[in-house]
Amino acid sequence: MSRQVKSGLQVEVRGVSKAFVGVQALDNVNLTVGAGQIHALLGENGAGKSTLIKILTGVHQPDSGKVLLDGREMAFRTPREAIAAGIGVVHQERNLITRFSVAENITLEDPPTRFGLFDEAAAVAATRKWLDLLHLDTDPRTPVSRLSVAQVQLVEIAKALSLESRFLLLDEPTSSLTPHETGTLFAVLRRLAADGVTIVFVSHKLEEVFELCTHVTVLRDGRNACDSRPLAGMTRADVVRLMIGRDERAFAAPAIGTRSGPPALELRGVATGLGHKDITLQAHAGEILGLYGLVGAGRSELARAIIGAVPITAGEVRIDGKPERIRDVADAVRRLGIGYVSEDRKGDGLILAHDVAANIAATVWHRLGKFLGFVSDRMQNTTAAPFLTSLDIRTPSLAQRVGNLSGGNQQKVSVAKWLAAGSKVLIVDEPTVGIDIRSKAYLHDLILKLARDGAAVIVISSDMPELVMLADRIAVMKGFRLVDTFDNAREYTAASQRIMQAIHG
Ligand SMILES: Nc1ncnc2c1ncn2[C@@H]1O[C@H](COP(=O)(O)OP(=O)(O)O)[C@@H](O)[C@H]1O
Ligand SMILES: [Mg+2]
Q1: C-alpha to C-alpha distance for 60 and 78, rounded to whole angstroms
Q2: What are the pLDDT digits (tens) for 469-492?
Q3: In a domain, 262, yes or no
Q4: Does ligand 1 have an atom closer than 6 angstroms to the CB of 45?
Q5: Is the CB of 431 under 6 A from ligand 1?
Q6: CA 45 to CA 384: how far, in whole Å?
Q7: Cβ of 211: how many Cβ atoms within 10 Å?
Q8: From the CA of 20, which ligand is nearest?
Q9: What CATH number has the domain bearing residue 52?
Q10: pLDDT single digits (tens) 240-284
Q11: Are residues 101 and 148 in the same domain?
């Protein structure tokens, strides 16, 4: 590999904050990456990793704080300025122009020309060099639209390498690669680092991190859980604890599902008006079924079919072993005891909620508190107070109507409310998106308690660590079909690999 640049950039992020509407994505974040270091940037979904990468590469500008390169303050206004400063990036979302060829994409920033026209032969030759480096045997003239997901990811990486950057940022670059392709990439990255290129690497696969990286920064809810620590001497458990704020096995005690007897909810070969095909799954009383999938996989839509909001066009739904026809939402909720905490709690979620627990006021607080053992009849007011604190619900009093609380507070109550409603089957859609770590742990406790009390709980989540901690079984959806269902041993590496295999396999 011919490298023009022999020394990388020393990178410092000092107290960077960034807010989007409704969320503090980064809060006073620090990061120090030495020149030639391979530095892991870790955190759960939504922790702020991609936002930090985008600030370092000129896509976003920080609200406050500084970025220093070799001690000089930088404020990139555009990605082009970052490229000019010697920074290459593979973003988490794909950025190629799919109707352009591989060569056109790779040379897009600086296209070779001959007599003032795009020089395809030169572009193809330049591109081939980078494809070869990654052992990617694809004709550079192929349109990107014809490539597989893994090939597209490798082309993104080749494009970043082709800039011969002094600082390379890779946001989950291996998410769709095979172990073999990943191995090739790592060999290239190690060579670059040996040449002095500074690398920041984001991955959910901790074994990759330990294999490749020397230092780690962990973000949690937009803050540093650790700042630029050497990985030597740290264990996987240490890293996981930093990521999730508690031990990985905190939820190891499974819910007490018995799979004898008919499932509380069973779908047999179900199709829906939205395009689901041949969905077969079972949720047993006392167990948590995790439903994983990428955005657009059809998970929420399936939930809406189960709750009677979308027609089921083929197959069979059984409740406690009995075939049932779900007529509409009221039928699902009242007669069949199915609850659904929707992702969009301000929209249909609360309307559904009101069906079941009309006048959600002191009574629900009371029943809910009693269920959780926080509130006795006698000591309601004194013991309810810490309960409010732990849910972090800001309410003027216990008698406050839930409808008058803020959206975020309603969100927490909407899960809890179903405890009082006594649903037999409860579907919870992205229960902890956008909420702080303390409320998140609290909601996890609620979901487990609900299952222990005998409900069949289906948790839809894109947060893999969350699902792996909570679920007794995991079902994976892709393209409105179920692609895998397996018993979850609550071991992150094994589960994430199996899920990735099902999705990208
Ligand atoms: N462009 C955006 N507009 C609004 N919110 C955003 C935007 N980008 C990210 N967020 C929010 O910022 C938080 C951090 O997101 P992100 O940096 O993508 O996390 P990660 O990459 O660690 O999963 C999340 O709550 C996310 O929803
Ligand atoms: Mg991200």
Answers
A1: 8
A2: 899 999 999 999 999 999 998 777
A3: no
A4: yes
A5: no
A6: 32
A7: 12
A8: 1
A9: 3.40.50.300
A10: 888 877 554 444 455 666 667 789 999 999 999 999 999 999 999
A11: yes
